[in-house]
Amino acid sequence: MTEPADLPQMLARQRKAFEAARPEGLEVRRDRLDRLIALVEDNADALCDAMNADFGTRPARMSQFTDIRSVTDFARYCRSNLEKWARPDRRSAPFPLGLLGGKAEVRFEPKGVIGIISPWNFPVNLAFGPLAQVLAAGNRAMLKPSETTPATAALIADLVAASFAPEEVTVATGDAELSKAFSALPFDHLVFTGSTETGRKVMEAAAKNLVPVTLELGGKSPVIVGSGADLEQAGSRIVMGKMMNAGQICLAPDYLLVPRRMEDGMIAALELGVMDQYPTLLDNEDYTSVIDDKQYARLKDMVEDARAKGGEVIEVNPAGEDFAATNRRRMPLTIIRNPTDDMQAMREEIFGPVLPVKTYDGIDEAIDYVNGRGRPLGLYYFGSDDAERERVLSRTISGGVTVGDVIFHISAEDMPFGGVGPSGMGHYHGPEGFREFSHARAIYSQPKLDVAGMAGIRPPYGEKGRIAKLLGR
């Protein structure tokens, strides 16, 4: 465990090493990325076991592609694009200086030491994914994994210590008080992934040191089901995204907007999707448990709140299992029909297998509903009408969009991933992520000619000055 008093010294050691080593060649960055890839690949089984221990049940096959393969693929993507990303951009010198020999360029240089606060829901992916791009940009890094997944956090700390010098990458482990002290450090950049509420506190702490932040938050990501949607296909894909990791995903579908005449069919399609993918739940090794008792109680309270306020609650329980007779924190997909805006399920990010289904009469009504709330991290559209799809895309704002499925836009490594407004700020992934963790340094080189004198911008400006001489006065 790390003490808050240790953090400033950890940061100072990294910053000193960063300054002393400048400039570092790209081969140094490649080596660090190679070590990160090896760290994850060589310890994949141990990392999956740690995540399983933290959750109670978390399928290893899912962890392999959400937290292991996703990191190694992304690190390799960063490595393969490193030289292109790091190449200076030639820019235009102002007229007529360019004609006289003036040169302008932008260099993308490392910022220094970057802090990464990662959450519990994908504890390997969301620690090491940002780290890959931080290292690609030439920075040092300090990680603070979530205390909610202690086994994974401890293993990450051990593996990082074995693969990196503390001057390169180091890990601080501890509780919420340590996270608070961590976010108050004068980093050169700070990355936080978590809830909007906590993101505000992190940003407030960082602002005291004018630390730039990347906030990957969440919010209520809507699914708009269009009038021409294939309901069976949509139901299957929505269930996949909503029940993966038991819905504990910042990009999970948070609520559905469905044409009123298609509501019954949509609910039936969701039920069919559950029956196909999760015919049983309590002892199903493919289904993840809710992370802890606190989160489980929050979700149960959310369902009871909806029931008390007139919502119809539908538990999709294909095998008719008794969830009340177990303490394994398993929860079936729970549909809330006829949700109202005063329900917790419509006011808070759900982060679990609870899914409100709201109806609309025209596509503009659905668009207006989305636009009347905080801008979401993800937006999903199912439908076959190109004009309707384009209307949804052109009249809404979200961090990203997946058309014809859910969540998948985050898997496109070459596209930026991030939120907007209450769902976050800044990006990683793609060249945008590399530039997020780089300082765009403008460099102008003046020619040997007396440009200032020729332009008449150097005093004196009076009748006997340079301007008068240039004008022949």
Automatic annotation (TrEMBL):
CC per GO annotation: cytoplasm
Domain of life where this protein originates: Bacteria
Keywords on record: NAD, Oxidoreductase
Active-site residues annotated for this sequence: E216, C250
Stored Gene3D superfamilies: Aldehyde Dehydrogenase, Chain A, domain 1, Aldehyde Dehydrogenase, Chain A, domain 2
Ranges of residues in domain Aldehyde dehydrogenase: 5-442
Record bears the keyword Transport: no
Database matches in Pfam families: Aldedh (PF00171)
InterPro entries per UniProt: Ald_DH/histidinol_DH (IPR016161), Ald_DH_C (IPR016163), Ald_DH_CS_GLU (IPR029510), Ald_DH_N (IPR016162), Aldehyde_DH_dom (IPR015590), Aldehyde_DH_NAD(P) (IPR012394)
GO biological process, one term: aldehyde metabolic process
Any one Gene Ontology molecular-function term assigned to this protein's record: aldehyde dehydrogenase (NAD+) activity
Family under the similarity heading: Belongs to the aldehyde dehydrogenase family.
UniProt protein name: Aldehyde dehydrogenase
Organism whose genome encodes this protein: Aurantiacibacter luteus
